[in-house]
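User: Here's a structure from my thesis project, written as structure tokens. My advisor, Dr. K., wants to see whether a designed sequence matches the one we expressed. Can you design one independently, without my sequence as a hint?
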């Protein structure tokens, strides 16, 4: 993606079946006074059925993680299959990225993500969908993850948030009344304007994020300039256009949670 230096693709490799998750690789064993937030990531190593490598966007994971963890929130990771996820878009000139890339405890969380059946929705106050090409595959159609998210949103009065291609994860979400979560709400995600719609990678996409959000009743808004931190907040739905809005999404999650606790 433009303006992100793709220095190398670091792929976490699944461990053998006799190697179990390290203790506390996720936060099952402890709670935070602030609360817990669930990050949703993808196991997809390729764009669809192609041989084009795909990954989760590392900065879209670590920048929000950094903001939220410093604010006192505990963060867990879930993926459709659990276990290791591919990461990429690594700009190791950035100090925050370098810090987490060499943080063993943090990287354990990405190597040993939870399976949906291991998640207790009642434990969480918010969810966050990270982006990257992988986010288009496996996550949007995953019904157990959809159910987790909507339980947090409707029964816990929790927040749903996403950045960039992570917004693919929210397009199919439906409330108990059968209406799409995005219907009637200002919403954002990576726009068609900035996709290479003739590119091989794009031909593998199951849908256009922009078009699907509009189809499901979302009021789609985006920055024509791009890469300027553009985001949208509509109640307990928070979305951002590209990686430059990732940290801001985390800040807005904190603002909303602080407001709801007053």
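Assistant: Designed independently from the structure alone:
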């Amino acid at each position: 993606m433009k303006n992100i230096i793709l220095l190398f693709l670091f792929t976490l490799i699944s461990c053998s079946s006799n190697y179990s998750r390290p203790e506390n690789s996720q936060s099952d064993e402890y709670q935070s006074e602030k609360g817990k937030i669930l990050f949703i990531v993808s196991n997809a190593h390729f764009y669809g059925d192609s041989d084009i490598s795909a990954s989760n966007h590392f900065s879209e994971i670590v920048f929000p993680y950094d903001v939220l963890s410093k604010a006192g929130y505990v963060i867990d990771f879930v993926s459709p299959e659990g276990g290791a996820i591919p990461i990429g878009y690594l700009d190791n000139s950035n100090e925050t990225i370098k810090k987490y890339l060499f943080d063993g405890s943090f990287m354990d969380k990405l190597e040993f993500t939870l399976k949906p059946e291991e998640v207790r929705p009642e434990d969480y106050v918010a969810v966050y969908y990270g982006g990257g090409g992988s986010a288009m595959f496996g996550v949007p159609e995953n019904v157990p993850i959809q159910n987790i998210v909507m339980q947090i949103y409707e029964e816990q009065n929790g927040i749903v948030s996403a950045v960039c291609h992570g917004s693919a994860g929210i397009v199919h979400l439906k409330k108990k009344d059968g209406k799409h979560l995005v219907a009637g709400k200002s919403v954002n995600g990576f726009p068609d304007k900035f996709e290479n719609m003739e590119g091989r990678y794009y031909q593998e996409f199951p849908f256009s994020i922009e078009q699907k959000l509009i189809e499901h009743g979302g009021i789609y808004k985006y920055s024509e300039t791009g890469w300027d931190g553009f985001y949208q907040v509509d109640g307990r739905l928070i979305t951002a256009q590209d990686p430059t809005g990732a940290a801001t999404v985390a800040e807005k999650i904190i603002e909303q949670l602080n407001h709801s606790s007053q």
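When you compare it with your expressed construct, this may help: Helices lie at 58-70, 95-101, 104-111, 143-154, 200-203, 209-215, 246-260.
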